[in-house]
Amino acid sequence: MSTAQVPPVTSIGIPRITAGYDEYGRLDLQAHQEVHGGFAALSSGELIGLADRIELRGRGGAGFPFARKVRAVIDSCKRQDLPPVIVVNATEGEPPSWKDKAILTRGPHLILDGAALAAAALDAEEIVIGIADDGIGQNSLTAALAERKMPCPTRIVTVPHRFISGEGGALVRGINGEAHIPPGRKVRSSDNGVMGLPTLLSNAETYSQLAIAARLGPWEYNSVGIPEEPGTVMLTVGGSATNPAVVEAPSGTPLMDVLAMCGADIGPGLLVGGYHGKWISAEQAETVTISRKGFAKVGGTLGAGMLIPIGSKTCALGEVAQVVQYLAGESAGQCGPCRLGLPDLARAVTLVSLGGSALEQVRQAAGLVKGRGACSHPDGTSRFALSALEVFAKDVEAHANGEGCGKQVRGILPLPYTAEKGARKLALDWSRCDGHGLCSAVAPEIIRLDHNGFPAFPQTPLPPWLEDGARKAVNVCPALALRLIDPATSAH
């Protein structure tokens, strides 16, 4: 069960979900039982009561109360006279996030315990566990299922490792054999989910927290953390951190304690909540405690627990532009605000990173997509972009006046496409370029002309959706100065 691709796992205080990781590495069933002990089955009423008393909310990003989900499924089952399905969302499609994969690879039985508790309480027809097709955690989960008996048939479904595949509606559609994209309209899985049955869908960490609470009971579970949000939180700390890690910490822990543990250089800003989250300044970060309430005080969000300090050694605007380009390419392509609006937003943000005066274009593009998509993807992308321009205002000014920040893009914000994975980049032979400017007319989302009329473009790998435009720019260059190269091999 290789865990080589998952960051190290550590904790602040006494570990709960991550208990036994240091001693066993990965907990098989015997080790799991030695560390965590057994638990008693719960009735549906006891399940709801436990979730209510520990204030259990979804840990996948939205933070929806788990007890309300259970009540909605029970009501739907009674109304339709149908059995429910339990779905565990362990897809974790965001490139910076690793917390669920850490549990999958090292403590899979906790996830299965939580799913089994819910299935037994609701007399479920089936348990379905959705994971990404990147292979991380699949062997560990398969082995765990082989070691135990579940209360109902349980299967693993793999979905494409894409940003939008983990959206609840997209996961249900994928399980049903449809396209792995959001449904395009509001569909409550509690009414019509897997196989048309009422479906209880929640995140892998959520089920793990439920399993911990069933063992400890609400009083002991609530003895850690803050009263409004008791228990621990699983966090992924990456970005500029010299010791990136998955960290389990009690709610209420000062944010700076977590960042210091991971050797994080915040630089001018910190991204909280992932690529649909929000940037906060270094000054704001010093005041935050790890909780939904703590992040809300500075206008941020805990989301799925991603903490990504940008650091002081990379071009922040270049990093942001790459991510917005990636998010534009991750559109499901089924509604205009997303299919057309996000590329416009990506172009405008890229122009700002290249020194163009496109701030108003960014705001206009973001305004045109906010609140108008069939899912939350346009809203999240806009929030990411607009908050970046606010936090990195000094960099925006430096780029706009022609001086730039003097830093290269170092890939601090992780992306699924890199030079090592075959992504290509534009290169210019300066001895040939005569400044015709045709390339910028063909591919304005990638190339702009500097004040001398010569092309300027990011020195970073291109997202796949921009390669066609880059190829057209190469083909129209009369001096044959522009080319597409593979940075890993320097091959044309």
TrEMBL record:
Pfam families: Complex1_51K (PF01512), Fer4_15 (PF13459), NADH_4Fe-4S (PF10589). GO terms for molecular function: 4 iron, 4 sulfur cluster binding; metal ion binding; NADH dehydrogenase activity. Its cofactor is FMN; [4Fe-4S] cluster. Keywords: 4Fe-4S, Flavoprotein, FMN, Iron, Iron-sulfur, Metal-binding, Ubiquinone. The keyword Transmembrane helix does not apply. GO terms for biological process: cellular respiration. Residues 317-362 form the NADH-ubiquinone oxidoreductase 51kDa subunit iron-sulphur binding domain. Belongs to the complex I 51 kDa subunit family. This is NADH:ubiquinone oxidoreductase subunit F (NADH-binding)/ferredoxin.
